Structures are given as structure tokens and as C-alpha cells.
Amino acid sequence: MSESTIVLITGANSGVGYATAETIASQPGYHVILACRDISKGNQARSRLETTNLKGTLSVLQLDVEDDNSISKAVNSVSEKFGRVDVFISNAGTTSPGSTGRDRLQKIFSTNVFGAMLVSEAFIPLLLQSSRPCLIQISSALGSVGLASDPTSEHSIPPWDEYRMSKAALNMMTIQMHKRLKDQNVRVFAFCPGLVRSKLRGDSEEAVSAQGHAGDPMESGKAILDIVAGRRDEYAGKFVWKDGYYPW
Question: Which of 30, 163, 235, 246 is catalytic?
């Protein structure tokens, strides 16, 4: 396993995280760590994945990005078992469906910004043990200030104010991490998966499918695999999507 590329994905039991895990683990030479807040959901995801045509290997890790103790335990566990992380995919996120006001803002920022930053920072020392480290923050075109302020862009239309704000903050964090880590050979990306089937918006079929508009998250998984495999290295430090990159 030490010869495998070690890929850790937060929020890996559904949506983009699950599709990315399936896509990467379908390739030989990868070990995917399914990092999930609910360990039972993580184990269920692993069982489902093991019924597919996997060529890589899987393990499950309890990790709640909003819990510092959980983050610390997860880092120690991965350090003891693997000694490094080659690819860290910060995917856990929420739109906090059903909440309003200050509670909504706090929940969205706690996961999408504070959690993403603290868990990424905690795992960076293990990334630096890799000979070819890669850090991917799962963002959204809705967080692009450039697109939001362009009246001709389809991405300027949806409201989602609190979610947009959180992803704009995540994008700034990604820029800063890239500047700090590029001289240590870490490839840092923000990635927009696009509107795909996900529990990000809620658990109902209407929410998961975005009223029928959501695409297949496996397309996002394939684009993330391209980044992981080094096929998008010229875009390191940028806000990437499957067909190019967006303005910050």
C-alpha cells in the first residue's frame, strides 16, 4: 500500500465525494481514504464501492471537519497507518438546508470555510511527506466574484448568498495556500464540480436533483482524476472546472 498514491477525500460518502472516490479507486495504484463525519455512512459507502469494478483499495476514516478533536485523531490515524497523504481533497460542504438567518450563516461558514481551512492545514504536514503532493479545494462557480459581477454570466443569476460568500472565502484561502505551498512542490487547485446530483441541498429527490437540473457527479469525478493524475498541472493555483478555469 505504501507504493499506492494515498488520496484522502472529506465528505466522501455521497455526491461529488463518493463519485470521486469511485472514479479514482477504479484505477490501479490508488488507495482512497473515505473520510466521513458518520463512520457508519462511510462503511456503507465503502461496501457499495466494493461492489463496483475497483482496481484500487479503500479505507474509512472518521472525520468531522467541524470538530478539532476529530481532525486531530484523523491526522494521527493517517500518520500512523500511511505516514503521508499524496492527495488531499477538501470536499465536505453544506448549504445548510432548512436553516435561516445567523444560524444558516454559522453552519455554512463552519463547514465550508472554517472546517475546510482547519482540516486542510492539519493535513498539510502529511502532504509535505509526499513526493508529489496535491491539494484540491472543492469550490463552486457561485463563489467567483468575477462571474457573480458579470451580468452576462449564467452564474450571476442564482441567489444562494450565504453559500456564495462561503465559496468566495474558500477561494481566497486556496489562493493563499497556493502562494505559500508552491515552493514546496504542492499543486494547489480550487475545483468547481458544477451543478450535479448531491445531498448538498438536502435529502429529498427534488433537492438532490436540483429540480431535475443536476448532472452526473461522475463527470466531476473524472475531472478531479485528471487533476490528481497530473493532466491539469498547468492550471495549478487556478480555479479549475472540467473544461478550463474560472476567474476568481
Answer: 163
Q: Is 167 a catalytic residue?
A: yes
Which of 18, 30, 167, 246 is labelled catalytic?
167
**What's the N-to-C CA distance of the chain in angstroms?**
37
Q: For the whole model, what pTM was predicted? A: 0.95
Spatial separation of the C-alpha atoms in residues 219 and 244, rounded to whole Å: 14
Angle at 222 between CA 2 and CA 182, to 5 degrees: 60
Residue 55 backbone phi and psi in degrees, to 5: -115, -15
141-191 pLDDT, tens digit each: 999 999 999 999 999 998 999 999 999 999 999 999 999 999 999 999 999
Domains and CATH numbers, the chain: 5-246 (3.40.50.720)
Q: Has 107 been annotated as catalytic?
A: no
Judge contact between 22 and 221, C-beta under 8 A. Answer: yes
